[in-house]
Write the structure tokens for this entry.
Amino acid sequence: MFSVNQGAFKIVEELMSNPEYYGVKVEKVEGGGTIIDAGVKVRGGYEAGLRITEICMGGLGKAYLTVRRYEDLLLPTVVVYSDEPCIATLGAQFAGWRIKVGDFFALGSGPARALSQQPKELYAKIGYKDESDVAVIVFETDKYPSADVFKYVADKCGVEPSNVYAVITPTSSIAGSTQISGRIVETGIHKLTELGFDPKKVVYGAGSAPIAPIHPKFTRAMGRTNDVIIACGEVYLTVDYDGEDLEEYVKKAPSSESKMYGKPFFQIFKEAGYDFYKIDPGIFSPAQITVNNLRDGKVYTAGKVDVLLLKKSLGLG
């Protein structure tokens, strides 16, 4: 079986061998592993963000940059695709591991999750467990993890701390903003899974989302990086499904189905008292989803791109 950690490590090696080109900084942690910084002490960039997107997908997906016009608004846009979307997104990319060690807290995403099996229910659903002597984890944070964090991750993954590689992408960075938008396919598959659809039925996945303009304040940047997916993220999935309820799944999948839809995410977050647990999880969805069923050739689509909402998020209208 393909190892998402070994697949990701090949891309990590590319970043580490060309730090100046990618705008990253590589630091060894005494008593721990290796940090690949893509936006804390260095600027990072689009190239780093694209490669980190592919690292998050465990080497089972590709990402590239284009520029797209959203009505009269021109924005850089990331396009991602995978021929193994279930493992690439839910098995690796999904930010499903809450890590708190001392004063360090971050959501861990990327292939290390497939070694630690976090969260276990999701891995039981997709039927995947990785085996690797290296672990690659991605943190959306502006803090460097300590040796204690590396030991915690290593213990959970069954590897040596020196074989843990942590990629750091702050939300208020180009690399961070790029890799968040690069989660667009994962967002669509995860939403369908939450609705009860079997993610193993998804055989191909592709999608695009604009890359949020950078804002120096974390809460504003976080709002924008959510809004580019909620308002303008588009997903195309090919499934092999023999049920009669596929159209109903698709209809319920877009972000516009959420009762909280219609306001910029920063405003939603503020009204929730900055408590994520008070936010309807249904809002974390692509704006539009299209699904093609291999069984009968039918195509279903729901939702739409909402440029007005995106402009509100960016302070343009």
